[in-house]
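Handout, section 4.2: multi-component inputs.
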Amino acid sequence: ETGVTQTPRHLVMGMTNKKSLKCEQHLGHNAMYWYKQSAKKPLELMFVYNFKEQTENNSVPSRFSPECPNSSHLFLHLHTLQPEDSALYLCASSQEARGYTFGSGTRLTVV
Amino acid sequence: QQQVKQSPQSLIVQKGGISIINCAYENTAFDYFPWYQQFPGKGPALLIAIRPDVSEKKEGRFTISFNKSAKQFSLHIMDSQPGDSATYFCAARPSGSARQLTFGSGTQLTVLP
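Output:
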């Protein structure tokens, strides 16, 4: 365990489904991130939260909706996704970006 | 736009050989340069990091070489082992208020037994 826990590990969903990804950290970090990792592509930063406030949204489609109820939990709500959204979704936390701690990711497949 | 360029995209090395992965950056305001290692099915994990006030940092078989004037840094893996087979990402952190890491595109390393 890295200190950042993501659930579920694997998710298969239809394009009309609604699902949520969960991330939890107990490292006392003040920043949390969602990244998308597709095959043969760089890590894509999606959202950044600092002290529960969203500080960055990298032009992510509205079918992805983040939620950060407290500094230890981060969610990514998914609805009406497209097949090209299939990827590994990684959550990370950090204390002032000094060293990111990543979770193991959720492998998402949209069918 | 990508501010950290990483090469090669893939690398095959014989066991016992030296693996070298290179990164170049454009923004001179970066103040922290970490390397991450990712095994299949896992998230990236911090491997080693360097600050621009030193030219080299060594931890076991892993060494970062940093060339500030050329805006380049590289990861050297000495005596490479099959267990080192993974994807490696370089990254850079800007100084100032927007301090998210910028990642390179990754290098898939395969160490042959």
